[in-house]
Amino acid sequence: MNPVPSGLPGEASHEKVIELDAVCKNYGRFRALDGIDLDVRRGERIIICGPSGSGKSTLIRCINRIETHDEGRIIVNGQILTEQLKDIATVRRDVGMVFQSFNLFPHLTILENCMLAPVQARGITKAEAREIAMHFLSKVHIPDQVHKYPGQLSGGQQQRVAIARALCMKPQIMLFDEPTSALDPEMVKEVLDTMVQLAAEGMTMLCVTHEMGFAREVADRVVFMDKGTVVECAAPSTFFTAPQSERAQDFLNQIIH
Amino acid sequence: MFGVLFERGFDGRTYLEWLLSGLGWTLALAVFGWCFAFAIGITVGVGRTVRNRFVRAVARLYVEVFRNIPVLVQMFVWYFVLPELLPPDIGNRIKQLPPPWGAFFPALICLSTYTGARVAEQVRTGIEALPAGQREAAAALGLNGVKIYRLVLVPQALRLIIPSLTSEVMGIYKNTSVALTIGLLELTAQARQISEETFQTFAAFGAATLIYLGLALAAYRLMSWLDEAFRIPGMTHDRIRRIRLRRPARESTP
Amino acid sequence: MNGLDFGIVYESLPYLMQGLRFSLLLTVCAFATGMALGIGLALVQHLEIPVAAQLARGYVALIRSVPLILVLFWFFFLVPLVVGALVNGGRPVPIGGVWTAFITFSMFEAAYYSEIIRVGLRSLGRGQYEAAKALSLSTYKTYRYVILPQVVRIASPIILSQTIILFQDTSLVYVLSLTDLVGAASKIAQLNGRLVEMYLTVAAIYLAICCAASQLVAWLRRSHQAAINR
Fold it and tell me: Which among A60, A164, B214, C201 has most CB atoms closer than 10 A?
């Protein structure tokens, strides 16, 4: 096991924005996370992969405390995530999250979806929020459908809106939980393109995905998980060409074939 | 058949006026009672779904108590028992309220709290039927607990439960008739009084029945209109039905 | 108010229990008859039997729109006339509050049970009917052995919660001055003036019975859910 990050390429700074230290999480008797150590630096793009049930989603859901961890320490943006933390919402405002099932609010229009949190959680004016929302919606190429409701859009469009919605909070970190797994194959690319663009702008990203082409293109590091532990953590060039562990080799064989 | 309604009763008013004044009290009870019940229902229903154990227990206690005692008995408790349990000076002042207010207020409290408990269960059902992702996404965006409920969960839950709220609306206007047991001259009481005065039972009960039918129709129309007006574009009937079916709502009161 | 005295309640407990027995008896009878009639009303609508289906629909809509108390008044007035017309050459036969209560509650609950059964019938997939037809079962046997057992099973939690409501509603026979649980309590309360204790006791008895019953319903629903998820 090699949880210590190897040499970091290019843009990432040395400032740690996420630190995980021996993090454990149990669901009853099942140990979903079993001693995870992981540091993420500002601007770093990390792809997390692994077989289903390996704890990938649980891991990133612990980072914005949608799930609570049982042992160990998680520090996000300098804030330690504990029961004592009075206002978890302040941490979450700086951490955007994109879900597998989009989770847009079906009773709000696209524009309202994007304006809701900036107005209600950040407290900025509606006019300002609208401007920001329109900016990010045009960035994900949805500017002319902003008055429609989520149910009227395709899956790919909904996921792009979900990305824009998260970006409207001007987060410092973006978490992606299998953002393309619920999409029809022809819509995967439009979502991945949006994410590539985001990566190119220097966003700190943690992404659970099985899209290995995407991983190769944007990742600074690939984290391979199995049974709640980090089995390998390496630059994509190393991980894809010469995986160290047998489990990673098996996994890559299955994914590729 | 309804000719008798235009005759005058002992107070010089026509029997039709008796019926209409009864209808007035029925409507007043139903409309104000519904407003309170709706507010109670949302508060308690939300309380049943929050993480705080104490709040959940209190909300549950409320629902169990108010749902599991017959309306008639609750009516008696508010009307006969409460003034006796309060300090004498307050109790006496309540007992000296001039009619019809002395009966109206207990009836209003009774119907509001009873219907509130039933609405609370519907609201809880609605919230629990929503996909967990809605709450997670709202939390992930940094909304606090109150805003998650106010802006995301409750608006969706209410849309889901409009059909079952329809039967609660019908329930409250029918339950207004229980107020006659504590002496409020609402529609059914007036019908009975006319029947006793004139022996024209068919006409008296028939007219009241027709009015109740009209009310039922109006309530039904109003609720289907609401269901349509608040329908979310792009939400197909099929999808709504699937979410609604996930937790079958409890059948409503007669 | 000179202090609560529940000793009075203890003395009158036998009388209260008599009242409770009547409430329960009325509930059970109205449940049995109401279910039988309700299934009939639902089937008539489900099978779209001409005229009868429309009549059933009208009856259910009418009963569900009118308060139970008014229905009680109607039946108290009408049943003697109907019975008189049938057996007494048109002269009304006074039948008393007890019979009125049994008849009214049966007929009233039938409308509510029929709605539950009707929704249950609709929720059953077409495959069941087709399979029964493929086995060349008659319509009667299809419903008797295939459809209705399933519907009653699916709807049993709702049927039971409706029956809890029915039990609560039997208290309304108070307006016919019958001696059910509430009636018994109010009669004693009028004699000894202890209405606070009497009504609180009655409330507690109803609360205990209905809470226990709704726990049962919740348990049923959970086990159903488990059976569906399996």
Answer: A164
